[in-house]
Structure formats: C-alpha cells, structure tokens
Inverse folding.
C-alpha cells in the first residue's frame, strides 16, 4: 500500500526557520534552489551535437543516478527531440518528425502518425507549452497531416499530456480532435459484425511479422484484430470519456466509457489463448499461405535444424481460417509458440482485468523474449523467428518501438497488478539493456531496429534517413517507471521508484508537473545533496514529503497552476 502523507503549514514554517539559522545546506534545502547544477550535468558528456546548453537548461528535467548508461541515454534522448523538432510555419508552429529526412510517406513537414503516441509521452515533460500545444493541434489543423496513416493512440496521449500539465483549458481545446480521430477510426477500421477494430501489422508500423510472413503478402498481409490497435482505441475511448467529463459533457463521457468497456471485453474474449497464456492476433479472413519466405534462415542460426519438430510446418500450405489466432490454423497449426511483443501491449493501457498476468512469465525467459539487446519482437523458439540483417522485419529483431511499449506495460503491471512473475529488478534490467543498446561506436545512437544478440544497428540505419530515429520513448520510462512519478488525474502526487535497492542516491530535478516545480531525491546518508536523509520530495523548493526507505508515496499537491505558452512567430522560416 502507498503511504499517503502531507506536510502541514506549521511544519513548513519550522523547517524554514531552522534553515535560516544555518549557513550550510540543511535537511530542508533552500527554496528556489535546484538540487542539480544544470550546466555541470550537461558537461558530463562529450558527445553532444546540439551544444545549446541554455535551451536544455530552460526546458528539460535534470537527472542524476549512479548508472552512467541510464544518465547518458536520458540526456541523449532529449537531444534526439531537438534533432526532430521542426518549426513548420507561422500558421502551424512546431511538429516532430520520425526520420531525419522526410520520406515520401510522411505528412506535411515530415511528421508521421505511427510514433505520435510515443512522441507525446516524451514531449509532455518538456517545459515548453508552445511546442506541446502546436504538436497537439498539428494533426488536425495542418493541411496534409495524416493522423491515421498508421495506428496510434492520439486521444490517450492527449489525456496523458493533460495529466502532466493539469490544464483544463488544454484538454477541453483538444477534445474535439480526440473525438474526430476516434470517429475516423470507426469509419475506417471498425468491424461492426465482430465488434473490434481490424487492420494489418504493417499499419501498426510492424511490417513483415510472423502473421504476414505466412501469406503471399509477406510485407503487409494478414489483416486481423490485433492487440495493438484495439488496445490503443480502448485507451482512446477511456481518454475521451475522462476529457468529456472534465468538459462537463456527461452524455459523451458515458458513451465512450461504454465503448471502452465493450472493447475491453472483446480483447479479453477473442485475443487471449488460455492454453498459450498470451494475447495474439486474430485473423479477419481466410488466407492462402506460404511456408516461409526465408527458407533455411529461421531460428537462432541460419539453416537451423528443427528443434523438437517445431520448425517444420505441420501442414505445408494449409490455409489460415478466419477468426483463428496465430498458429491455431495454417502451416504451423498447433505450434505452442506464436507469441509476439504485441501480446504485452494491453497492459500499456491497463486494459486487462486481473487474471491474465501469467503472460509475463515469458518476458525474462531466454528461450522466449529475453536477449542481451532485447527483448525480441517474437519469442526465440518460434518457428518463424528471424533476425534480419536489414530493415524492416518484426519477426525477431529488437525494435525500440516495441521495447518502449513493453517497458511502459511492465511499469503499469508492477504498479497496478498483483503477480509473481516479474519485479522491479526486471524492470531495471530491461531498461538498462535498452539504454546500452542505444549506442554506436561508443556514442549514443538509435536507429530502427537492432540485432538482439549483438546490439548492432547495421542494415537498419540508412544515411540521412533512420539514424537517430524518433520512434520510441526513454525519458518517460525513466520519469514514470524508474523514478516512479506516476501521473494522475487529480492533485495527488504518486511516486513509486523502481530503482535498485542498493542505490545510494538519485535525483530527478526541475520537473514541471501540474504547474509546479518538482524534485524527487534519494540520498541514503544525506551526504550527496545535503537535503536530508532518505527519499525526499520537494515542491517549488520546499519539502513536501519524505520516507526513510525507497517506497511508494502519495502526497497532497496544491491545485494545478498551469503555465501559459509563450507565442512568438518566426516569419523568416522557409520550410518549402
């Protein structure tokens, strides 16, 4: 159970009276004084391409931990945002790209809808309301934007952003866009007979997967009811319901809550296989099949012999039947495998009821998803497991997009469910693997996909294209998972760090949360930061709450005090 605490005005007064009597740092700290020296933190690293340290000092939360891999990747991911930040025009303001260049399938100014949910979860922590607001309205106010070219969770991302901003005006302003997006999905992807959303893996951004590879359309075949889009739109319906309640529209709130409840039931009823204890894609139609477009290259090693017969089609060329799950019919019918990382996605949005947690026993198993630079996108003993030397294959490679989803889902699981399969040590181990995977020649780097056994990005990072690729999260995983600041709908500050228990210190400083300046500090003996012993939370420079150990905290916040956006136009921009 979380410990709920608040600091009385009298205790604040005593604390600061004591502080005034001393010339050195005290257990209470100094009001308005940052915990971390910003320039000193930035100067720890020599790999910066963007050396505008003042920009970072004004706009990002600062982090220090005992783990140099985590810290370097955290600051790199803030620099990564600046590599993709585009000022489109005076009329449309800022947006973000996915690729360093602007491929032909992107929308205006190079934005692509596939990673927008990930991008918003990062950008919501940026202390620049102008950028956040422009990016939110870009998708529905900019001609040529493509908000549904790929599956995504726009409405959920808007609500997640509102949780951090605490600004009613923001969520009321974007609510019509949230509803317009959902209406578009209903018109384009809803199957009224089956009462689920239907699309293929390629339009999840997950092309060439083990379902499509069983069909002649190996790149974008195998339309189905996937745990991805259906979970995204469950989350979007929840977000619209909550936003409508804030806006005072009880009817819309009820209707979307009912939609979410129905879709949740359908996902659990149709996509869960109790025998394999996992969520799978369900095929939408009968499919002609092929045995494998890469014969002789399946398995952990090219030309692997069959492992227990699992890599030999049970019925070569057998058709896939509509409404069957992966490997229930088709060439690999009866295989005990077929699990993909998409089976963890429902927990990314807290969709499953209690009772489905056994899926997580496969995550840290080296015979399943665990790998030195993983997790793998398909479990490693799968008959169609394949690590490709080139882009773009979701049948085994380590994809940051999917790793982000799994880590977000894992943090939700550890915070919101009771289960015996994984713990905070697993979260840290996977986060650290993910951090050190983001390297090339010893420098921070990320591309589309990596070899899960070697960490190599070779073949997946084309020059001036997918290098320094913005298709995932990391900052949010550190803030909400590792440090454990859990955004909420109300004025309760919930903190549950998933850090290693042997850490002597960490600090997350200068976080703008619901209009307040927040710092979360762990200092085992008080010697590193001079702000007292233990886990301590500072709000606007004053001590808000504390604990002797690293443990969950719930603290009462003052009402949200949103920060207004500064709006200036760049009339010199020439984005043509």
């Amino acid at each position: 159970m979380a410990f709920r605490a608040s600091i009385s005005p009298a205790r604040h007064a005593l604390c600061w009276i004591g502080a005034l009597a001393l010339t050195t740092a005290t257990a209470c700290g100094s009001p308005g004084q940052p915990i971390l020296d910003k320039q000193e933190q930035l100067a720890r690293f020599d790999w910066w391409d963007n050396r505008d340290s003042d920009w970072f000092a004004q706009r990002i939360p600062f982090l220090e931990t005992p783990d140099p891999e985590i810290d370097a990747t955290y600051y790199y991911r803030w620099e990564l945002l600046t590599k993709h930040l585009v000022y489109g025009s005076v009329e449309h303001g800022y947006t973000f790209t996915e690729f360093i260049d602007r491929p032909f399938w992107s929308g205006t100014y190079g934005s692509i809808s596939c990673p927008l949910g990930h991008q918003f979860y990062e950008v919501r922590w940026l202390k620049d309301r102008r950028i956040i607001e422009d990016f939110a309205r870009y998708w529905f106010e900019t001609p040529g934007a493509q908000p549904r070219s790929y599956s995504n969770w726009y409405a959920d991302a808007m609500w997640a952003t509102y949780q951090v901003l605490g600004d009613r005006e923001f969520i009321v302003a974007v609510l019509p866009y949230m509803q317009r997006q959902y209406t578009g999905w209903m018109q384009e992807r809803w199957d009224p007979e089956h009462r689920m959303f239907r699309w293929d893996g390629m339009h999840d951004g997950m092309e060439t997967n083990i379902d499509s590879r069983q069909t002649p359309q190996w790149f974008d075949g195998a339309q189905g009811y996937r745990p991805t889009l259906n979970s995204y739109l469950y989350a979007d319906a929840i977000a619209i319901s909550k936003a409508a309640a804030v806006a005072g529209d009880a009817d819309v709130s009820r209707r979307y809550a009912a939609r979410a409840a129905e879709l949740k039931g359908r996902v659990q009823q149709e996509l869960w296989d109790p025998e394999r204890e996992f969520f799978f894609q369900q095929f939408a139609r009968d499919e002609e099949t092929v045995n494998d477009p890469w014969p002789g290259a399946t398995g952990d090693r090219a030309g692997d012999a069959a492992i227990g017969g699992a890599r030999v089609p049970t019925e070569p060329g057998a058709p896939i039947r509509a409404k069957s799950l992966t490997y229930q019919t088709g060439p690999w019918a009866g295989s005990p495998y077929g699990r993909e990382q998409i089976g963890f996605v429902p927990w990314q949005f807290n969709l499953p009821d209690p009772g489905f947690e056994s899926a997580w026993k496969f995550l840290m198993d080296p015979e399943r998803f665990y790998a030195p630079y993983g997790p793998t996108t398909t479990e490693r003993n799968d008959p169609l497991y394949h690590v490709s030397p080139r882009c773009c294959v979701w049948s085994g490679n380590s994809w940051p997009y999917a790793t982000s989803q799994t880590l977000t889902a894992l943090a939700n699981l550890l915070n919101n469910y009771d289960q015996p399969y994984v713990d905070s040590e697993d979260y840290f181990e996977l986060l650290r693997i993910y951090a050190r995977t983001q390297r090339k020649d010893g420098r921070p780097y990320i591309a589309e996909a990596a070899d899960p056994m070697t960490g190599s990005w070779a073949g997946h990072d084309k020059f001036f294209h997918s290098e320094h690729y913005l298709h995932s999260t990391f900052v949010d995983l550190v803030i909400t998972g590792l440090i454990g600041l859990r955004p909420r709908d109300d004025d309760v500050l919930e903190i549950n760090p998933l850090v290693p228990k042997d850490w002597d210190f960490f600090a997350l400083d200068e976080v703008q949360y619901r209009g307040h300046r927040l710092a979360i500090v762990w200092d085992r003996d008080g010697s590193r930061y001079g702000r007292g012993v233990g886990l301590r939370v500072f709000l606007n420079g004053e001590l808000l709450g504390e604990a002797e150990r690293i443990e969950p905290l719930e603290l009462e916040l003052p009402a949200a005090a949103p920060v207004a956006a500064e709006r200036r136009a760049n009339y010199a921009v020439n984005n043509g």
Notes: The mean pLDDT is 91.
